[in-house]
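subagent[fold] <- orchestrator: predict structure for attached chain, return tokens only, no commentary.
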Amino acid sequence: MAGAIEEDEYRSGLQSAGFVDVEIVPTRIYDFDDARELLEAAGIDEEAARAADGQVVSAFVRARKP
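subagent[fold] -> orchestrator:
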């Protein structure tokens, strides 16, 4: 979970840095069972981990700096 960031915040940061045509394409959406060990290892309790079900993704990020 280190470095996790909301999509809108990430997109805004790229745009603030001068990038345009920002595209974020999810490649995998993790459910609770996928992420359980990772979340528990990070010290996140099971209840909080269940709340993250479907909220953690891997993605391709594309952007262009003119």
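orchestrator: received. Logging for downstream: The chain has one domain: 7-64. The helical segments are 7-16, 32-41, 46-51.
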